[in-house]
Amino acid sequence: MNVASHQKAALDLILQRRSVSRFVEGQLPTAEQLELVLRAAVTVPDHGSLQPYRFVVSQGEGRTRFGDALAAAGLEANPGLPPGIADKLRKKAFAAPTQILLIASPREGMKIPEWEQVVTASCTGYAIALAAFALGLGAIWKSAPIMDGVALREVLDLRAGERLLGWVNLGTPTEPTEARVDSAPVVTRL
User: Fold this and answer.
1) CATH hierarchy code of domain 22-59+95-175
2) How far apart are alpha carbons 15 and 91 in whole angstroms?
3) pTM for this predicted structure
4) Mean pLDDT of successive 10-residue stretches along the chain, which has 190 residues
């Protein structure tokens, strides 16, 4: 394959990628797929090569721990939270067989500002989703209204200055997604 073919294949991959919200339960990504997705995540633009991020992979029993921590965070933020809402938060951890939790871990005392480090950490979610698509997996970035609390900090081992940005649900899609690309509605030209 020549350079032009590689470029076209890469561009086609980017243009065809779509978020997937329904996954085949129990069909985990293989260890090799998961490793490739995580390797892709660390290729994001990173001023200063700080790697101001880290990941927590949630599968199996880990989903229960993550879901319980999400529900606990909701109850901590709002002690009067109805049980049904706490259960909805808990169920977010079971929307896919695997979640890759994205944690911003900015480095203090660096010339690169914190906001730029958080942007770098955020880019990892897109790299994960793109790599998942390239491997025939489905992926979607998710979050919750409450992303901090004692239980979440504990289960994710969050250190001072770190924060959960969201997570990428990952697995085998239940149905194909339809590609649609139109940049016109979001582009202004000067």
Assistant:
1) 3.40.109.10
2) 31
3) 0.91
4) 83 86 91 97 95 97 97 94 92 96 94 96 97 94 94 96 97 80 82
